[in-house]
Specification:
binds adenosine-5'-diphosphate; 7-stranded antiparallel β-sheet; 7 strands; binds magnesium ion; Heat Shock Protein 90
Amino acid sequence: MDEPDASPCTCIEEKELTVKISSGSTARMLDDRTIEVNLPSKMGYERIAMDFSACFARILGFDPERIEDLRTAVSEASLNAMEHGNRWDSNRRVVVTINYDEESLTVFVVDEGRGMAQLPDERQVREKIAQLQPTRGLGIFLIRRLVDHVEFNRLTDQGHAVKMVITMAGARS
Ligand SMILES: Nc1ncnc2c1ncn2[C@@H]1O[C@H](COP(=O)(O)OP(=O)(O)O)[C@@H](O)[C@H]1O
Ligand SMILES: [Mg+2]
């Protein structure tokens, strides 16, 4: 992956219209509190979405531990979008929209796929943790644990979306 041309916080502070982050990816302020990051489906580019999300979370005053939770959740959702949604086709885009208000930060991760036929159930996850099943397949489990609210399988005109919210109050639902 190329070195980013701009750091997330710089982009947010400068409120540029569209910023080239690194080859094939851009960030665009949609309004004062919303940024849209457009990424190719390539390993490593999920870090751009993680960094922008973390930057907004810092602005909002989340503590470092919560910011790490958010980074992990955004990473898992973005990698799922690239792997399962877009099947590692680098021409297919992952669009990550991050928005915040006084109380919460919301991240949408949109891929060009059709979403999940079935979400893994808790029993499968327990078996993986006990190493009775291959230990892949923990991404959704982690996302559920790390954010306050999550919706999978939101089908939109742009494709399949995962919505994640972390709140200042930290009430998980
Ligand atoms: N964005 C997505 N589009 C389609 N299917 C998905 C998506 N994200 C997850 N899935 C499905 O849910 C399963 C579980 O995802 P996850 O818990 O992250 O495990 P893993 O990515 O290791 O398979 C995936 O194997 C896949 O079948
Ligand atoms: Mg995964």
